[in-house]
Structure formats: structure tokens, C-alpha cells
User: Fold these one by one.
Assistant:
Number 1:
Amino acid sequence: MKMHDCDLLVIGSGAGGMAAAVTAKHAGLDVLVVEKEAVYGGTTARSGGWLWIPANPLAAREGFSDSREAGRTYLQHEAGNHFDGKRVDAFLENGPAMVDFFEQNTAVKFVLGPQFSDYHPDAPGAMTGGRSICAEPYDGNELGEHIKTLRPPLKEITFLGMMIGSGKELLHFFNVTRSIVSAGYVAKLFVKYLRDLTLHGRAMRLTNGNALAGRLAKSAFDLGIPLWLEAPATELLRDGDRVVGAVVETKDGPVQVNARKGVVLATGGFPHDVERRRQLYPHAPTGQEHWSPTPPGNTGDGIRLALPLGAHTADEYPNAAAWVPVSRVPWKDGSFGTFPHFIDRAKPGVIAVTRAGTRFVNEGNCYHDFCQALVKATKGMEGEICAWLITDHPTLRRYGLGHVKPFPVPIVHQLANGYLKRGRTLEELARECDIDPAAFVGQVAEYNRHAAQGQDPQFHKGSTAYNRYLGDPTVQPNPCLAPIATGPFYAVQVVIGDLGSFAGLKTDEKARVLGENGQPVEGLYAAGNDMASIMGGNYPGGGITLGPAMTFGYIAARHAAGIAA
Ligand SMILES: Cc1cc2nc3c(=O)[nH]c(=O)nc-3n(C[C@H](O)[C@H](O)[C@H](O)COP(=O)(O)OP(=O)(O)OC[C@H]3O[C@@H](n4cnc5c(N)ncnc54)[C@H](O)[C@@H]3O)c2cc1C
């Protein structure tokens, strides 16, 4: 077998792996990154690119008064019985330092989400803005030839392949028919996109997770870190109790990679491991009743590699993954895409009902909470676990719904392929979707009775800062409520998916994988979703997977390099 020597082997090229690689190389280690797929960036490249870091330096510069203590209080409340004080403290201490390190030394730059509220803003220690930071948009030309192997963004959340940044940029898209400034802004971006498409065959203005993955990769390439593509790690190598490398399959055959300082597992968790899903996802009794927008290569390899060394996964978490409601988008070739519903549920004039015709949750709550409520509400019901997002004509054309875009983008195609259901009356829509008509008509009437006054006595939609952040501030008195009154009426079906798994490998506060008797396995680290989430199965804020992913990648690298972390 061929051999390759390095100090640190990083397995996986998402945020966890690349943060570890860049930090380690900067600290003087000889680093190799191996990636199973033909493209790098993993789920990170498909993501929103938000990192949740309490008391981060960007917020401090903007005058937010946040603190590590407040972050700890909030996380203790959120994780409950699964709170792991040591790892949380390591995160809170190193998170801001990690952000400083990347901003000062690499191509990774961030912008602050000043109004991006924590997801449970009324809990102790929560903030209503300033903890979430997003990767700054990036010019793909900076990556040179490497742009060709950057994983593209999730097709379903682009506009014809063009990436749309969150926050202000997204607002311009919503306002394109209402404001000259927004129309001009969008037109300029679209012309640039068409030019990029002609010259490069893809969007070159990277935003969100694609910008984060691009910026991390650029930082790695600038430091001369080799990245092997189509190179899955298949086995860990040991010398006594210490991990000293791995076998990596390549196009030219297997290579024995010897890693003097250790190995970082960062293969992105197990969202596509059907057997593990069967064991841990309550809504997926065969493991198949689940739709994940994460890339197909995330099949739990890191976990499988570590288990023979006595490692354990956090199967006791109340939620084994970060749930998100998704709709299945039919493509022309007969395949289905997966659209994650982050924003539309909170808009005024949108509600969600089960097949029973009734609402079950504050629709503006976070995706993770929405899905948990859906599983609860459909317990004992026949058929697949699903809900319908419901709206009327003016609302659909104003905000779109799921993969359906706002006016002036036509809707005929989505009506024809069955993605969007329509009824001239509420009864007709209910029959179209196999929803109980009488209960549904009664439910909409009950909702409408209070919506015009900005009230929702049933579920209090619009009652939290997070709800309102995703609503429409021009709608008053409640930016999340408007009657569903003007037909035709529309529905999109949602089922349960995930953004990544939570029940990863148990580690200590240095990101070392714990083996027999809870002792660290020397030379073996886990970062990103290969590491058990420090959120204990809960979802406290925007960026709670990428923030810890980069922070524990940074911690692992510094520990391997012998720097106190
Ligand atoms: C649409 C969407 C939006 C999201 N938005 C956000 C957000 O804004 N903020 C947030 O915090 N989270 C978000 N998430 C979740 C977040 O993207 C993931 O939790 C995060 O990217 C996981 O990072 P990672 O480094 O663990 O894994 P990944 O980024 O998935 O990278 C893992 C890599 O390892 C590779 N790999 C797998 N097996 C092997 C092997 N055997 N050998 C070598 N390589 C291997 C995979 O191919 C992959 O490229 C979002 C997810 C989605 C789908």
C-alpha cells in the first residue's frame, strides 16, 4: 500500500474539518484533508452560512451587551438534562477567539445579524439579536480553478441557480415589485449572474454557506493544504491505544496516511445512514420516511470508524437531528428536490394544518420545534406524517410559498406538477389535499376571526421576537398575522427532514473522542456533526451547528498542535 505522512489528517471538508485544517496549518502542522465526494464543502456549502456565537466580536463592536455568562444560562436552559458544562464552557470561551482568528488570519469574514433573534427569546439568557453571524458574500473568482469543485448550493433555495443572501438581500427580492430601489438591486445581481453563467457556467457571487465553504477552502489553499477529492477514509490506524492515521481510498488505490499528531473526524454526521435513522428518528420507523437536504455522502462514516475504538454516540438526546419541515419539489427528470421551509411559515396569512384540518403549532416558531409539534399532533393518525402550509392568493403572490416564488414569477408549472395545490374555495382545497373539509373551514374561520386584530389566541403566532423577525414588519399590528380570505386558496405539503444530525460521538472539551470508560482516545478528534451536539438535542438559535463546528475544529487543531485551548 502507498504511504503518505502528515501531522494531522482531517477527514471531511465541511466547516468542522476545514476550520481544523486551517487552524492546524497556521499553527505549523503539516495537514492533509481528504474528502469522499468529488466536490468539497459538504452540507456547509448548501447551508445558510450562519454561526451562532454568544458574545462574538462583531456584536461587541456594534455595542451589543452580551456575555459568556448569559450564553451559558441560555444553553443550560435549552439543553436541560443534557447540558454538558465543560464542553459548553469550551465553546463559549473559544467561539469568539475562533471568530477573531479567522477574521484576522484567513479569507473567512463575517457579517452580523443584528436582529436575528435567538429561537427562544423569552428564555433566560436569550438575546433578540447579535449572536448569529453569517459568512460575507464571496467572489468565486478568488478560488481560481478550485471553484469547479466547490459543492454548489442547494438548487431548491436558489433563484434559477442564483444565490440570494439572507437579511437585506432577501428583502430586496421580496420587494422587487414594490420598490424601485429593490428592483434595481435585484436587476443588477441578475445581470451579473447571467454574465457569470455565460462565462463560468455557474454563479460566481457566493453567498451564505457557499461563501463560507468557499472562504474556508480559499484559506486552506492559500496555506498550501492538500485536499484529496474522491478519497473516503475507510479505516483508522492504531498504535496501541493511539490513533496514528487512516486508510484512505483513492482513484489510484488505497493509501496509508500516517498522521503524527492525530486524526480529526469531520464527516458531517449520519443524515443519510438509513439504519441509524431507523433506530433514532421516531417519525421514520423504517428509516426511509425522512427527506434530508444534506449531501448524500454524509452516511455516518466518522461514527462507524470510531465505534470499534469503544466510542459512543449521544443516542439519549430527545432529538437525534436538527429537524426541518421540507417539501418535495418534482423536477422534470422525475427526481425530487428537497426544499427546507425556514421563513415562509412565519409570514402573515400562512398557517399549517394536519390532515385533520386543524392547526397544531405557532407556525412562526423555529423549524426544529415545528417538526416536533407535528410528530406529536399526528400521533395515531393514518398515513405519512405531514402537514399542509395554507395561504390565499394575495399572500401567495406577495411572499411565495416554499419553492413557489412571489409575483411576477409564474405559478402554472408548480400547479401542473402537483407541488402547489389550489382550490377556488377552502372546501375544494381541503378535498384536493385530503384534509377534513369541515374541520378545516372551521379552523380557518377561527384563525381569521382574530387575525385582522393581530391576535392568535390559539397559538400566539407573532408573539416572540423570533416570529416577528421572520414576519413582515409592514403588516401591523402583528407582522405574522393576516386573514386567509381572498381565494383561490393554496397549499404545499411538508414532511420531516433534517439539517444535520445531533447524536454524534461523545467527546471531551478538547474535542477528543471518548472511548472505553469515558477516557479520551489519544490522537482522535471529532468536529462538526460527527461530534455530539452541545445543544443536547435542542435548537437554540440560528447557527447552532456551524458555530460549534468551527469552534471545536479550532479547538481540536490547537490541541493537536500542543497549544492550550
Ligand atoms: C439548507 C441548509 C441550511 C443550513 N443552514 C445552517 C445555518 O445557517 N447555520 C447552521 O449552523 N447550520 C445550518 N445547517 C446545518 C449545517 O450546514 C451542518 O450542520 C454543517 O454544515 C455540518 O458541518 P460538518 O463539517 O459537520 O459536515 P459537512 O459540511 O456535511 O461536511 C462533511 C464532509 O465529509 C465528507 N465525508 C463523509 N464521509 C467521508 C469519509 N469517509 N471520508 C472523507 N470524507 C467524508 C462529506 O462528503 C462532506 O463533504 C444547514 C443545513 C442545510 C441543509
Number 2:
Amino acid sequence: MTFTLIFIAALLLSVGMRHWLAMRQIRHVALHRASVPNEFASRVSLADHQKAADYTIAKLRLGLLENAFGAFVLIGFTLLGGLEWLNQTLLSLVGPGITQQILLLVSLAFISGILDLPFTWKKQFGIEAAFGFNRMTPRLFWLDTFKGIALAAALGLPLLWLVLELMATSGTYWWLWTWVVWTLFNALLLWLFPTVIAPLFNKFKALEDGPLKTQIEQLLKRCDFASQGLFVMDGSKRSAHGNAYFTGIGKAKRIVFFDTLIEKLEPLEVEAVLAHELGHFKRQHIRKRLLVSFALSFVMLAILGWISSQPWFYFGLGVTPDLNGYNGGLALALFMLVAPVFGFFFTPLGSLASRKHEYEADHFAAQKSSASALISALVKLYQDNASTLTPDPIYTAFYSSHPPAPLRIAHLQRFA
Ligand SMILES: [Zn+2]
């Protein structure tokens, strides 16, 4: 089977590349562990620098394990017959039809979730805890997990049912209708997220009156940005890492600060961080990302529309389709398992675009706020998040959504 060989080749290549990139990063960070890079020497202590190196390496080591394990699981589901067994078992239990297809996808998601759990647990209560970042209790962990499952069921099951119904009844162009549904569903999520979804997991309070609020309001006026309010979120409930973001569409835009960010940064630094985020909006990055994601889902669904009617797609990946019957759920399951293997090779394109946007947003922040305040905020955040200041260039080029610290600071210094 040609497709089986193509799949195995792509899987080996992607797993090998992930491993190679992670090893490069580990070696590079370890090599520069002994001393703080010159440009940061006055701001970052050796102890913090070494903590960042150890933290980065600990996460990468777990990633190596996860990478290898993930490949075995994928082979297990496909070529070794895991999905085939699941499909046949459910067929004999409930018979063919939409219910069976929904059960197939739900059990696949459930099994994947369970296999993933030890890694998620180890990240939170092993690594994050060892480096002093975890603020989550096991109770909260399970509460989050069950809320997540309930939310996925409430939103995902009706969507899944609708998509499977379209696949079964709307002919060759089902994928086009599915794309319309998917796009509307995502717009709905954007609209629901700030007011309905996020409050399920965190508390949001209006930012209190005071010097910070005054300063932020002036910045918003300078940037001509209308928002539906400034909020502080209890991010400290789960993690010591700080952040700021804004969410929502149209007039419902909200600005959200993690409480951890406001604790750590001076008002001028918070302003500079927010100015950077506003830069993403004003330079149309958010709109572009949204359009790209709609275009990508169009292409993916067109591919799925084609291969789901090709017998080699199923047989090549170790499953037996019912050629005269209903394969919608089986096609979706296989596609979700296998598409990331091929998608991996496009990662650098997304990373490159993202790094370009980061530079543009930094430039915007330098114009509307202060480059030197953003520099000092970033250095504090690098320290607090134990981000490495010495990443491997090839690893960065492949994965990093943000420019490496030294280049980013050097770029900002041109405007300071
Ligand atoms: Zn950014």
C-alpha cells in the first residue's frame, strides 16, 4: 500500500525531527547555562538564569517522552488495528448509523484523553510544582477536567451530530456545508468566550480605580480603541505565570489582565504590555489570523471531502470502511489522528508569521507607550516565567511564536 508507506515515512520523519529539534534545544540551553548573556547581565541573576535553563530542559525532556509515546499510540490506533477494533466493537454493540459514529469519536477522544493524562499531571504537579509555578490543587485539576469535558460535550456533541448529518445527507459537497457550519460555530465561540465560557473557569473583576486604570484609559484613548471594560482575572488560582490578553469581537471586546501580571509589573510596564497587545489588533494581526484559520479549515475540509471517499485512505491506515454505508465518523476519526503528522511540516510557516507580528506589535507599543518600559516588563516576565534567554536558532526558527529574547530586546532598543 503506497499510502501506508507515505504515512509511515511522514510519521518517522516528523517524530525524528521533533526529537532532533528538542535535543538541539537541550544542548544549546545547557551549553549556555554557566553564564548570563552579556546584554542581560545587569538585570538577570545567575541563579535565575540557571533556573530558566533547568526548567526549559525539564519541559523538553518530558516532551521527548511524549513525542515517542504519541507515535506508538498513533501506530496502535491505525496500523496495529486499535481504531478498527473500536469501530467493529461499537458496530456489533449498537449497529451502523449516526449513534455508532458519535460513540466512535467520543470513545476515541476519551481514550486519547486518558493516555494524555499522565503527561498533563506530570507537567502540572511534577515540573511546574518543582520550579514553584504551580498554584493548582489536585481538586482544582479534576474540577477543571470535568468542567472541560462537560463544556466539550455541550458544545461539541451538537456540532458533531450536525456535521455527521451533513456528511450523510448533503452529497459530494458536504464538506462545503460543514465549512460554513464550522465557521459559524467558531464565530459563536468567539462571542461566547468572554461572557460565558471564561467565567466558568475564572473570576473576573473590574479593574479598580487608581493610577493604573487612569493610565490604561489614556493609552486606550491614544490608540483609539473602544472596549467593553478592563478586567482582572484570578490567574494566580492555577499558576504564577503572568499574562494579559483581550478577547471578544466587535463592541464586546474586553481587556483582561492576570492578577499575577499586575502584582509583578509597575503601572508603566503593564501599560507597555497592553500597548503591545493593542498593536496586534491595530496592525490587523487578529483579523489576519482569523482569516488564515478559516482558509485553512476550508482546505482541510476539501481534502477530507476528497479522501473520505477513497478506499485507500481507510485500508492504508488499517481500518475497513463500510463502502456502501456510513463512514463519516470513521473518516473524521482517522483524519484527526493522521492530519497532524502531515501538518507538522508546516509549523515553521506559522511560527515565522507570528514572529513577524510580534516585532510589529512591539514597534506599535514603542510608538504609543514606551520601548524601555516594555523592555523592563519583558525582562521581568522572562525571569518570572523562567524563559530561556539562549534558545537554539534552528529550534526557534521552527517552533517559536515569539522572537528569541536577545533579538526582541535589541529590536526594541532601537526605539528606546
Ligand atoms: Zn504579542
